[in-house]
């Protein structure tokens, strides 16, 4: 017996996409079958906001980690009609009684997770240096506090889109010395 999974897979990682996701994003798929599985990975871009038109989809895995999201996911994405979002994590979090099922889409500002969102094995950990949704790393403030070199290098990384650099190993990684950047 074979199982055939039909769906749409869109990967546009590190393409310097910027601004809000437009309301007509994936319009033809929404109109055809909003329950079909859709995987969209827009990680490491400069996306700032999610479109409320995404609420039409009931089975989407939208990956937006490290994409400068400044507004929360529309609450409708985290309700009982969207339990299939992020490979079912929204439903699992909701069923588990978590305070905010939207954390399964993106960790909120002030927190991070290596996946940029709550996972089965790990929640969103506190990190005051994360100012956007979906952070995957946290600046170790004990290293940078009072250390001007670290502060300058971390600001350089942030202001020059360091996530898109060809070699950005160990930048902003907790516990890494600046000599390991």
Fold and architecture overview:
The protein has 181 residues and is α/β, with parallel strands linked by helices. It has two domains: 7-107, no CATH class; 141-180, no CATH class. It has helices at 27-32, 89-95, 141-144, 148-159, and strands at 7-11, 18-19, 37-41, 46-47, 60-63, 111-112, 125-126. It has a three-stranded parallel sheet, with no helix packed on it. The chain has a two-stranded parallel ribbon with strand order 2-4. It has a two-stranded antiparallel ribbon with strand order 6-7. The longest helix is centred in the last third of the chain and has 12 residues, at 148-159. The relative contact order is 0.11.
Number of domains: 2
- The helix tally amounts to 4
Shape category: globular
Radius of gyration: 17 Å
